[in-house]
# Entry
Amino acid sequence: MQIGILYSRIRRDEKLLLAELRERGHEVTKIDVRKQTFDLTEPPEAFEGLDLVVDRCLATSRSLYATQFCEAYGVPVVNSHETAEVCSDKAKNSLALAGAGVPTPETKVAFTTDSAMEAIESFGYPCVLKPVVGSWGRLMAKIDSRSAAEAILEHKATLGHYEHKVFYVQEFVDKPERDIRVVALDGKPVAAMVRHSDHWLTNAAKGAKTEEFELDAEAKSLVENASDAVGGGLLGVDLMETESGYTVHEVNHTVEFKALNEAVETDVPAAVVDWLETKVPAEVVA
# Structure
């Protein structure tokens, strides 16, 4: 199999994936999107002969455009542009989950500071304000009072970028100081871990402690439904535990799995490559 890896920085996750692919004898082309020029009709030379492309772009904008160009060239790409577009925007993510009947935190979107304040007041305190585009818990705010809300909204309104003028307000979920990250392949869980933290943000990137988590039937069903809602693929599905069951607060399309791979017995990169091999004809893989 000849496989291309779209990237702008090779992280530990990509190194694990590259090592597994090469160990199995697959030919790998690393494609630094920062050095490519994408024509409207003809693919860059680096794409020649590839059976499959895997999007591992760090920047959301690059991921969205690169996957769209791949599909325009007729080059199979995972994840698809459709999945990337839904998962890269928290509002679209929430809409997809709610539309599919997947339990997800109550969310409101507003476009002015006045309407955003109304949304915040409707939830009461605390509630959460998030950027519609972003990862690793950056620029997320737990709002505990009206004065804090006023200050944060004023700051966002003056930041300049139009995305900061889309106010994504969400109920605060009183989770048990942890959430659950699941890596899934077309809805089938590969492995799961809990991320513990005293802080309200439980991202591994912010230092949360991790350990393996065994999914029950309810969680597995939610992961499958959440994956279907955003278009499937190699995904990270984030769950929180509530008194009434699980809720899915986000699905990630360029999921990082190094922390999960260290926390569980499952060989996550091997499972991902097993799945990638199903995406091309058997005679090509052989």
